[in-house]
Structure formats: structure tokens, C-alpha cells
Design a protein that fits this description.
The structure holds 2 protein chains of 2 kinds. Chain A is of the alpha/beta class. Chain A has a single domain, classed as Rossmann fold (3-Layer(aba) Sandwich), CATH 3.40.50. Chain A is built from 7 helices and 10 strands. In chain A, strands 6-7-8-3-9-10 form a 6-stranded mixed beta sheet, sandwiched between helices. A 4-stranded antiparallel beta sheet of chain A has the order 2-1-4-5, covered by helices on one side. In chain A, α3 crosses α4, α3 runs parallel beside α5 and α4 packs across α5. The radius of gyration of chain A is 17 Å and the shape is globular. Chain B is an all-alpha fold. Chain B contains 8 helices and no strands. Chain B is globular. The chains are: A alpha/beta, B mainly alpha. Chains A and B meet through α2, α3 and α4 of A and α1 and α4 of B.
């Protein structure tokens, strides 16, 4: 329970359900993540982790229940939520035929960055892709795409970062860099939700844990 | 890394950025544009053979054949413009920036209009060579008739492409949804173009152009209102 003057929770989920056709991906889920905290989301494939992250990112709308993100109603105030939340998803959200730089510059312009090219170059350097900045991402490896997707996430400087399997497709050096980026995000006060099958790694990075089985919350 | 300095992006600026992105994508994948041009040329050539080089019939049908070629090509263009958005869920990424759904609609519709409009000019010399037509009323009326007709195809085309994009049989679904809706606007466009080619002794062109413009206003207004709902869950 928050007291007056406390910031609204990062995520406040009340009896949220999501149905795809006849299948319930999430069933009456409730959970509150305080601002500035990090949550490890675990569960088998199909347990509802990705659906939950996409609901919080407002990429999906809940079938039932209420969902507040950073104090905003995630259904009625989508744009306020979207401006503050960044999602690292299985899909990279990148245009295959554009170069790494073009992908980031377009994003920077849409986000209103004052110097879009400088911002894109700084982020490409941050994820180690400066030398490949002018290459179309169609020719990128899975790991390079993941790095660019991370740069895309960092472009927003989010208040809440949603990371869906962030270590997937990364080599050991990439995993170490990803851990460093997560540590940086946490140090800057960013709230974080991390969905991964690498439970030990996740537990080292997160203070809280939510385990899902068939879209329901269960004790791990 | 220093904290980023950001300014709010207004509707028109977002539309311009997205239009530039769509045109850049077209430029980077020129093979798609080439395919579009060859498809339209092949269509016109086949019609010319089908009409057995009968000069009078070809001249009378030229307006309709031009719009058939443009319509078929536009279905290809519209499908492709959403296929690139589907890869890696790029459209979701733009949505979550957040970018206005209406800005996405206007940018996509304008981008496709420019493409089909350019194709209409490119096909003109081919029409002259194959069908022996003349711009009796000059290039100005042709430019207006072509632009209005293209606008009437692209606005509903973008909305229906976005709907069909999530369907399994999207290539079949798009023409099924789009063609019936376009019939009245296309008939008016064909009439207007035929008058531009053959002359307008009864001064009917203006009425047909106003009719197409009326459909354009309706289609674009509906697209503007409905598109954000189509791309949201």
C-alpha cells in the first residue's frame, strides 16, 4: 500500500485476464510492483509471460481487469504509458531493409530527440555496432539484431523497462554487456520487469519474483 | 551517456517523419517498385493484345484499362507496404513509441499515393504507344484526374491492408474488401480520364472530378477516424 506522496507503483495489476480465441493466456492476475524495483517473471513456455509484458507495454489490451502503469490507466491513457515504457521483445521492431543507423535515427526523430543522429551514434557505440551502422539489418546475425533492439530500448530512457528473454541469442560477451545495461538501468532508478528462463541469472538481477503457470500466479 | 534532450513531436512532424521512412523503405527496396512497374506494363500489354489492335475500341477503353492497371498494381503496393511493417512487428514498434495512429495512416496513404501517381505518369507514354491515345485536354486535367483517382484507392487501401495484414489469407482478403468499395470512385475516375483522352465537348469533366473528390473526402475522413482502431488490439 502506498502512502500519500509516494510515487504510483510501476505496475498495478488488478484481476487482469487476457483471452486469445478460446484460450485464456492470463487468468485473474493481480500484482503490484513498486516504483524503482525489479521483477523476475518466470514460467514455462506459454505460461503468459510475454502476454503480461505486452499488456503492460499496451501492445495488447486486457480482456478483463484493471491495469495501471506508472500511475496511468493502461487502456484509457495508452500514450502516457507508451512514452514512459520500453519493451525488448522477441520481435526486434526493426525494419529489415534499413540500416542500423537509419532504424535508430527514425526512432530518435519520432521521440523528439534534438540531435537524432548523435543519439543514434552514441547508442550504436554503446551496444558495439558502430562498425556495422551503415549495413542493412537484413544481413545482421541474431545477436547483432538483439544488440540493436537493446539500443532501441535505451533510446527511450524509459521509466519502466520490460525485457522479454534479454539474454537470448547473445554470446557470452553480449550477456555480460546486457547484465551491465540492466545494472545501469536499475542504478538510474528505472523499474524493470525481466522475463527469462535463466532463473539464477534473473534472481541475481531482480529483487522480486512472479511465477506463472497457465496464466495464473503460483508460488515458485 | 548524457540524458537525452527531447521535444514533443506534433502530428504533422510525426506524419512527415513516417512518410520519409516509408519513402526511404521504397527506395531501399527498389526491386519492389520495379516489380510494380513491370506488372502494370504487362497488364496494359495484355489488354492491348486482347483488344486485337482495334484502334477505336482501344481508344474508347483506354481510361478503363489505365485504371485497371493502376488498381491491380496498387493492391501489390499496398500489400507490400504492410508486409515490411509485419516483419519484426515493426508497426508495433512505431505504435509503442508512441506515434499517432492517424499520423501512421496519413503517411502510409500519402506514400502509396505518390507511388501509384508516379506509376500513372510512367504508364502514360506506354498508353500513347499501345492505345494511340492523346491528352486532348492537356496534362493538367490528366494530373488532377490521376491524383484524385489515386487518392480514392489508397485511403481505403491502407485501412483494408492493415485489416488483411493480420489474416492468414491476406493476399486474397485485400482485393475482396477493397474492390467493391472502390467501384463508384473508380467509375468516376475512368469517366474523367476517358474525357481527358478523348475530349470533353459536353463539359462533363468538372462534374466527374468533383464526384471523385467527394469520394476522396469520405474515404480519407473514414480512414483517418478508423485506422487507429484497426491497428490497436
Amino acid at each position: 500500500m502506498t502512502s500519500p506522496g509516494d510515487p504510483a507503483p510501476a505496475v498495478d495489476i488488478r484481476d487482469v485476464s487476457k483471452r486469445f480465441g478460446r484460450r485464456w493466456a492470463l487468468a485473474r492476475l493481480s500484482y503490484t510492483l513498486p516504483r524503482g524495483r525489479s521483477l523476475l517473471l518466470t514460467g514455462h513456455n506459454g505460461s503468459g509471460k510475454t502476454t503480461l509484458l505486452r499488456l503492460i507495454a499496451t501492445a495488447l489490451a486486457p480482456t478483463a481487469g484493471k491495469l495501471w502503469v506508472l500511475g496511468h490507466d493502461a487502456v484509457a491513457r495508452k500514450d502516457e504509458v507508451r512514452a514512459r515504457v520500453a519493451l525488448l521483445s522477441h520481435a526486434s521492431f526493426l525494419y529489415e531493409d534499413l540500416t542500423a543507423e537509419q532504424n535508430l535515427v527514425i526512432l530518435a526523430r519520432l521521440m523528439g530527440h534534438e540531435a537524432p543522429k548523435d543519439r543514434a551514434h552514441a547508442l550504436l557505440e554503446r551496444v558495439g555496432l558502430t562498425r556495422r551502422s551503415s549495413h542493412p539489418i537484413r544481413h545482421f546475425s541474431a545477436g547483432m539484431r538483439k544488440r540493436l533492439a537493446i539500443a532501441r530500448l535505451l533510446m527511450k530512457a524509459p521509466e519502466l523497462a520490460l525485457l522479454d528473454e534479454p539474454f537470448g541469442e547473445l554470446d557470452p560477451a553480449g550477456i555480460a554487456e546486457m547484465e551491465a545495461i540492466i545494472a545501469e538501468l536499475k542504478a538510474s532508478g528505472t523499474s524493470l520487469i525481466l522475463a527469462t528462463h535463466l532463473v539464477d541469472q534473473g534472481l541475481r538481477l531482480c529483487e522480486e519474483r512472479l511465477h506463472l503457470v497457465d496464466g495464473r500466479r503460483v508460488d515458485p | 551517456m548524457s540524458p537525452p534532450v527531447r521535444q514533443p513531436v506534433g502530428f504533422f512532424r510525426a506524419t512527415a517523419i513516417l512518410l520519409r521512412k516509408d519513402l526511404l523503405l521504397e527506395w531501399r527496396t527498389r526491386a519492389r517498385v520495379n516489380a510494380l512497374v513491370f506488372f502494370a506494363l504487362a497488364t496494359l500489354l495484355l489488354f492491348a493484345f486482347a483488344l486485337d489492335a482495334n484502334r477505336n475500341i482501344m481508344q474508347a477503353a483506354a481510361g478503363g484499362l489505365l485504371w485497371l492497371g493502376l488498381l491491380f498494381s496498387s493492391v501489390l503496393a499496398l500489400g507490400e507496404s504492410f508486409r515490411v511493417e509485419n516483419e519484426n512487428a515493426a508497426l508495433d514498434g512505431i505504435r509503442l513509441v508512441p506515434a499517432s495512429g492517424r499520423a501512421i495512416f496519413i503517411a502510409k496513404a500519402l506514400g502509396n499515393t505518390l507511388l501509384i501517381y508516379a506509376l500513372g505518369w510512367l504508364l502514360l507514354p506506354v498508353m500513347v504507344a499501345l492505345y494511340d491515345i492523346h491528352l486532348t485536354l492537356g496534362p493538367g486535367p490528366y494530373a488532377i484526374a490521376l491524383l484524385l483517382g489515386c487518392l480514392s484507392i489508397t485511403a481505403p487501401g491502407v485501412v483494408f491492408s492493415a485489416i488483411a495484414n493480420n489474416a492468414r489469407a491476406r493476399d486474397v482478403l485485400l482485393p475482396l474488401l477493397l474492390f467493391p468499395l472502390l467501384v463508384p470512385a473508380l467509375l468516376a475516375s475512368v469517366k474523367a480520364t476517358t474525357l481527358v483522352f478523348g475530349g470533353d465537348p459536353m463539359d462533363q469533366l468538372r462534374s466527374w472530378l468533383w464526384l471523385v473528390a467527394g469520394f476522396d473526402v469520405i474515404y480519407w475522413a473514414l480512414g483517418f477516424l478508423l485506422f487507429p482502431r484497426v491497428i490497436e488490439d
